[in-house]
Write a sequence for this structure.
């Protein structure tokens, strides 16, 4: 029509386009103003042409927006772009990473279902299953991430879902995603992967056989520590159940945050490459330092799953954890001696962060649970940002000197 010239390239022109092209362009539809940047639609509702049009849209007979809890054009652009990057039929955006996990389970599981969750998942994910979902009749067990036999042995007739985070936080353990997918499918269950630490720039779980991918967009998808959000992506026969829960229960993504994440996605690959390059350098440097007992980073040949990481990921991520010689006091001295790096448990920011897992993210576990999870009192986690790597290293050297 008259505005076709402004619409510019259509999605059909992106058929076969590579990751970086999709990251910049997928999902955008230009409006009558011919705007080059993605439009932000801060609107809660939409106007109908007539009473009959309203009735048809409410009935679902005619496509179109009704209310932003259901659909919003900016959110849709973000969903289509992340679906393109994950190689998913459909993506659904949520208000946070946790609401993505909640919506996934509420959409796809019922009372009486059994779920296997990898033991080393994000602390709030464990709380969600243990404190809340269990109350509604969902049974949960926690096999160790790397132990395929334990996953096999943990399957029950009513196992509906396998949920893993790979690489894990903070020890960078990996799930063999293809092997777990095979196990799940042979049993008629689904495999969901929290792909937060790698992003689709480094790992594409659906291509490895997973059924669903979950993200905390708060981390690397934003990439600059500004806003909260989440995503569930997969086949539309599955994601439509997640959409159904979301539009009813309400933890949908705000259009403002969707717009920020769109901008984040445009630079995702180059940011992840820079994050990984600095993390690799720092991990190699730390591994040779006196005072450092062990470094956990899948990019090091000393990592027990280095080969799996090379097969499964196109980069090793930006989280480097290490044990110092000594106890909790030594770890705290190290952390407190840094000057530039931010003491915070967040990650996926341009700013490098440092944290003591045993007394923060994993502080609510008992000492025994922490020991089982391999989280020592002398463990420090660094999420490497985008500052000059020499400056990050110099700051970590202050920590080393304090040991
Ligand atoms: C942060 C995080 C979450 C939760 O996401 P929020 O956006 O904070 O709700 C889930 N999984 C992983 C691996 C995370 O790092």
């Amino acid at each position: 029509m008259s505005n076709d010239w402004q619409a510019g390239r259509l999605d059909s022109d992106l058929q076969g386009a590579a990751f970086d092209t999709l990251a910049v362009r997928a999902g955008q539809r230009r409006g009558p103003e011919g705007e080059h940047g993605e439009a932000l639609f801060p609107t809660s509702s939409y106007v109908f042409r007539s009473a009959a049009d309203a009735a048809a849209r409410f009935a679902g007979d005619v496509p179109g927006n009704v209310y932003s809890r259901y659909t919003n054009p900016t959110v849709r652009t973000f969903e289509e772009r992340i679906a393109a990057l994950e190689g998913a039929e459909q993506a659904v955006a949520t208000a946070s990473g946790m609401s993505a996990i909640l919506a996934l389970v509420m959409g796809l599981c019922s009372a009486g279902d059994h779920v296997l969750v990898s033991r080393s998942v994000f602390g709030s994910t464990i709380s969600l299953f243990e404190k809340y979902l269990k109350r509604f009749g969902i049974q949960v067990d926690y096999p160790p991430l790397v132990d395929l036999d334990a996953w096999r042995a943990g399957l029950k007739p009513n196992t509906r879902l396998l949920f893993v985070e790979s690489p894990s936080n903070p020890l960078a353990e990996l799930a063999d995603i293809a092997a777990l997918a095979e196990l799940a499918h042979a049993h008629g269950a689904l495999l969901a992967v929290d792909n937060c630490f790698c992003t689709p720039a480094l790992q594409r779980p659906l291509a490895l056989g997973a059924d669903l991918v979950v993200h905390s967009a708060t981390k690397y998808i934003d990439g600059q520590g500004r806003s909260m959000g989440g995503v569930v992506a997969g086949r539309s026969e599955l994601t439509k159940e997640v959409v159904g829960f979301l539009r009813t229960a309400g933890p949908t993504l705000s259009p403002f945050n969707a717009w920020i994440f769109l901008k984040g996605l445009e630079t995702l690959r180059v940011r992840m490459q820079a994050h990984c390059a600095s993390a690799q350098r720092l991990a190699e440097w730390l591994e040779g330092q006196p005072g450092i007992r062990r470094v956990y980073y899948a990019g090091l040949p000393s990592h027990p799953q280095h080969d799996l990481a090379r097969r499964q990921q196109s980069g090793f991520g930006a989280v480097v954890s290490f044990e110092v010689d000594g106890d909790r006091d030594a770890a705290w001295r190290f952390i407190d001696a840094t000057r530039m790096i931010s003491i915070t448990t967040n990650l996926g920011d341009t700013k490098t962060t440092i944290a003591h897992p045993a007394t923060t993210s994993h502080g609510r576990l008992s000492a025994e649970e922490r020991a089982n999870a391999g989280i020592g009192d002398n463990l420090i986690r660094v999420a490497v940002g985008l500052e000059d790597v020499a400056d990050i290293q110099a700051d970590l050297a202050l920590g080393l000197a304090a040991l």
Remarks:
- The longest strand covers residues 159-165.
- The chain has two domains: 6-265, 268-402.
- The chain has a mean pLDDT of 95.
